[in-house]
Amino acid sequence: MNRRVDRPADRLVVMETPRLVLTTWKSDDVDSLVEMHSDPESMRHVRYGRPETRTEVEDLVQAYMEAQTLRGWTKWRLADHDGELLGRAGFGGDDDVRGIAYAIRRSHWGRGLATEIAEALVRWHLVNAPGLRLRGVVAVGNDASARVLEKTGFEEVGTGDFQGTLCREFVHPRSESRSDGIAENLTAAIRPTPGM
Predict the structure, then answer these.
(1) DSSP 102
(2) Average pLDDT over the chain, rounded to whole?
């Protein structure tokens, strides 16, 4: 599951892929994440669909660190093996519903990194949260992210309005089916509450 290694210093390494490493956050990650979160194109389909302020990103990193401490999972820091921040990836939601999430810095789009980390996240979820339904939503028009979900085994189950954004809804078939209604639970799983 999680292991502590010397590289990168003072971070818990959650998982590694051939090109990527997911780690816990540190408060000094804010500057790097602000670069991504202040880019309008990178943020068009992420969180609130707009660039975010430094204060919003500081609150976000703090919320991720708190979630890791409380739950043992969050949206983690996504980097290459040299430590350069490439984005964030992990899960939103709560103990009743888990939503896969990933955001890649625009300068790294088109390299298959979202698919690589999404595949690793699905494997992690199936091992660490067996029986818990894994879901994903993608804003209508974000076809690249929808393709990532499809490539990693998700099946489209419909559309729904989430905080004013029309989204395509997906479920991973290897996670447990539940009858609790997608629309009621996906908002918390994918579109973050302030601070998440």
Answers:
(1) E
(2) 84
